[in-house]
Amino acid sequence: MYDVIIIGAGASGMFLAYELRNSEKKVLLIDSGKSIEERHCPITMGKVDKCINCPSCAIMTGFGGAGTLSDGKYNLTTEFGGDLHQVVGYEKAMELMLYVDDVLDGLDGRTSKLYSTADTDLRTLCLRNNLHLLSAKVRHFGTDRNVEILKKIYAEMEGKIEMRFLTTATSVEKKDGHFEVSLASGEVVTGEKVVLASGRSGSKWMHKTLKGLGLDLSSNRVDIGLRIEVPAEVMKHITDEVYESKIVYKTVKYNDLVRTFCMNPYGQVVAENTNGIITVNGHAYADPAKHSENTNFALLVTNHFTEPFKDSNEYGESIARLSNMLGGGVLLQRFGDLVKGRRSSARRMEKCFTHPTLKATPGDLSLVMPKRQLDDIIEMIYQLDRIAPGMANEDTLLYGVEVKFYNSRVEVTNEFETKIPGLYAIGDGAGITHSLSQASASGVGLARIFMA
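Above: the chain's sequence. Below: its structure in token form.
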């Protein structure tokens, strides 16, 4: 009988377990992915060019979750990245995120700049061009340093927290005042409390589990977009000042909101596998020796749906499947080819001055992206060109598609407890957070509740 069973070792589950490591509670942490030392993607290792659908995706699952091999960027803000403040309040949400930052920065043990978008000239420049810069403090460790930090967290937990990897929970049931968690191996583990922390990659599992427990879910949004790659010089005046700039624009044509997301100066574009669907993302390293000559970021269009349609994630997956169908994975197109209504061919890419950091299939994104979202992104690129001249150059690269899946929101109390006593939900898996900082903070918050 465990005191706490944590399902999911991503940012939220990991920090919950980390905070409980020196308590007297008997804790079990399980994850369908691999331990930190064994998380190696064949693509990033140079063994293959495209995703080969590994049984356990090293990019998305395992210790640290999808954030482990990300660019190690933590946005300290309540303006974006989730709704943690709706659960614990604004002041508490910021206090928890700042605590997480202190822990990570302390484990890093190096001088790491804390960027801020407050009171910058960029804010004025954006406003003059009908763009809106969101406020945040940003700590960037880089993919390489982020992995080393998480290895230290793992080492501090080892021997204090029972951790099982390549372990999948198939169901959760409450019986006789305790919970039974059935594993794919056939084993059943029991616990007084169960915490659902399945993260982004566990969205389908989370939905199935919560429905099986009779809990109501509120539909969340899905963000559809493309990853943009330009020479780093185009964005240098912005990234040198604030590193990560969350810029929002309301399009003239459709009145839709488009935003920049996950900016990676001198970074690399990467592919990731979510439930068998190949989408695109971006990373950046702290080590200058690993820098590329480009900066990449996403442009995302937020999609909300009305009755009768409720499955927003399925909508996003269907668009990603088209890209996978046409390109065998990620599609790549020059901006000049897109606006001229022609596909990017291998011959045209050979003449491209911007060299792609991800090997992707040249093609036509207009055959994949819905017209409305594509029009929004084209309009946003021209608007960004006003504050970063060169953004709308013909050789700006567009990778598709990028989809941000958001789990259905489960109703929880201000202590993260569901309507079923003893069952808790935190992080991205609960639809509460959408960022590393807020997900980690939710784990810390629940740990404090358990130890109170």
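The mean pLDDT is 93.
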